[in-house]
Amino acid sequence: MNRLSTGIPGLDRKLEGGYPEGESILITGEPGTGKTILGIQFLYQTCMEGRKCMMIATEETPEKILLHAKLLGFDLEPFLDNNCLSIMRILEMRASYTGISADGMYETGSMHLDDLNNLTQLIADDVEAIVVDNIGTFSIGTELKTFRNKLEMLTYHLSTQKMTALLMMDGTAHELTHKIAEYSTYGTIRLIVKENPYTGKMERFMYIPKMRGTGISLDPMIYEISNEGIRLPVQGKKD
Known about the structure:
Elements: E1 3-4, H1 9-14, E2 19-20, E3 24-29, H2 35-48, E4 53-57, H3 62-71, H4 77-81, E5 85-88, H5 90-95, E6 99-100, E7 106-108, E8 111-112, E9 129-133, H6 144-160, E10 164-170, H7 171-176, E11 187-195, E12 202-211, E13 221-226, E14 229-231, E15 233-234, E16 237-238
């Protein structure tokens, strides 16, 4: 199985080389756990390899994402300039909707921007890697069965186009949807903040309950967020 590097050496080792190519991976966690940073590091690494990438941001403007990335040492602007990376302005598109339809969905022209299925219309055919941050936005006011069906259609489309995708989902939406998104994706990574029973301190843990085609440990791994992004300590070293 081919893999795409996560941009985090320690995580690459845990995943036997990286994310399975052409598959969708669900990333869940509460605010402050580093979901967006995980996506930024993946995009930076993948763009560095010369692959066409895309980010669909539902909660932040491209300018804020670019600034956040640059402060971490991952300058994405050159990739925008050479068209290796595109960032879809979903937040602004939703904020400037032209009206509200009978079913309560935002509309811009004929597109319902709160409809998960319409994401496929925004993705160019030559994109190889994509980050959607976050799909929890599309679960609001949607029945569980409908949300799962639409998510499965999205992941099927991405898979048939051989696109490797990170689908971020905030912890609240993940719980409210009874973690149903995990059934529709190839793998799941949960980012958790909890007390370390050995140190008595609050720490960040990465837990991988599912990653098909990959020999994974079910033990939670401590990770750190610094001004250089996410790192997994390995044998006493930050990596």
